[in-house]
Amino acid sequence: MANYLNQLENPQFNHRAFFEVMRDFRKGGLNPLNFDRFMDTVNNLPPIRTERDYQAFDVLGLVDVTRDEFPVIMREVTERITEQSKTCWHPLASSATCKIDASGNIISSAAHSIQNNGVLSQIAEDGHVFGYAVEEGEFKTKKFGKNSASIFWGFCNTHDAIFRPIETVPYVQTEEQNFLFAYRGFVVAMHKKIEVSKIVNYGEQSDNDIEENKKLFDQAVLSADYSCIETNVIELPAFYPVATSSCFYLDYDFEGSLIPHSDERMEYIFVTLLPM
Question: What is the pTM for the complete model shown?
């Protein structure tokens, strides 16, 4: 049995994106001629499998993926899902309000989740910062050029201007600024989650949480009512060369008690770390 077929034992892994790259790169014995038959065989596997069930793949001439080939495949998978996920999260985003390409698709820009000149420049050394990246299927520490760090493809050039009050104006803890930090943390984290969901199945509840929380942010943006966010500012007594913009949810409190969430969605905590 080809070694990459063991991925089929993980129900959370959306393996088709991986197999499509193998097909296009002619790796593991997959190619355009046998791919449809291969996927039919995959889809016909029983829920509980034995080694005998995998013998159905023997007629396809599959071979192992080498250790050197695996990171090449994963890198291409990552690049493809990044390209497929480019969009504009603004509630008014459309082909009429955003720049579009020749095919009518919205052109998203390389926006920074952390301000380049105002924040990253304060923690950079020789124009570089450290962050995390997925390489060979694992999170690894990586040095980034300041101009390419914290980039995500979640807004077009037109609607990225919504963040000017936190990029061109000093932070003075206005309600609008606090909202925009939370909004950007939400979009950055959920945009990345949607990207990853193309290879990892998070389930319908995850999609619903994103959709319902986006509705609240969209309404706040459209009405310019920023009171839906409750902000706590914590000032640390020293300078720490760390910056981030993201969000997460909590299942349990510090006493180990389950935190109740609404029936409609999972509530998030939005975090922005600013070295000042």
Answer: 0.86
